[in-house]
Amino acid sequence: MTEALSRRRCKPCEGGAEPLTTEQSVSLLQALHSDWSISGDGQHIMRTVKFPDYGRTLGFANAVAWIATCEDHHPALTISYSSCRISYTTHAIGGLSDNDFICAAKIDQLVQAPES
């Protein structure tokens, strides 16, 4: 199902739309890498990806930024020497939307990409 999510494109999300229910979020979470989790308040999904050095961490963060720009859906990133924490929510609706899971699935594919 990650592959199916990763092929989808984000849709503009306007205020007034309803956020996903807990059940919908949990169902979509099952399609993602097991490192993704839902925040206690159910309004964010997050994952931390670890790397051997700062250069690879920054390269990954830039690739995530490219996905965000292409999808026009932007996560919060916390970058340290050897890790990058990604957190998605849809601010316009005050919770999670399909867009959060679509972008997470695209990031999962990025992490699984073979190194050159």
List the helices and strands and how they pair.
Blueprint: H1 2-7, H2 22-29, E1 37-38, E2 45-50, H3 54-71, E3 76-79, E4 83-88, H4 98-112
Antiparallel strand pairs: 1-2, 2-4, 3-4
Description:
This protein is an alpha+beta fold. It has one domain (2-7, 20-112): Gyrase A, domain 2. 41% of the residues lie in helices and 16% in strands. The chain has a four-stranded antiparallel beta sheet with strand order 1-2-4-3, covered by helices on one side. Strand 1 and strand 2 form a beta hairpin. Helix 3 (54-71) runs antiparallel to helix 4 (98-112). The longest helix is centred in the middle third of the chain and has 18 residues, at 54-71. The chain is globular. The model has no long low-confidence stretch (mean pLDDT 92).
Summarize the structure.
The chain has 116 residues and is of the alpha+beta class.
- Strand numbers in spatial order across the main sheet: 1-2-4-3
Largest sheet, strands/sense/barrel: 4 strands, antiparallel
CATH topology: Gyrase A, domain 2
Give helix and strand order, one letter per element, not per position. HHEEHEEH
The count of helical stretches stands at: 4
Rounded to an integer in angstroms, the radius of gyration calculated over CA atoms is 14 Å
CATH class: Alpha Beta
Number of domains: 1
What is the average per-residue confidence, as pLDDT, rounded to a whole number? 92
The fraction of residues assigned to DSSP E strands is 15-25%
Strand tally is 4
Q: What general outline do the C-alpha atoms trace?
A: globular
Low-confidence stretches: none
What is the CATH superfamily classification? Answer: Transcriptional coactivator/pterin dehydratase
Helix content: 40-55%
Structural class: alpha+beta
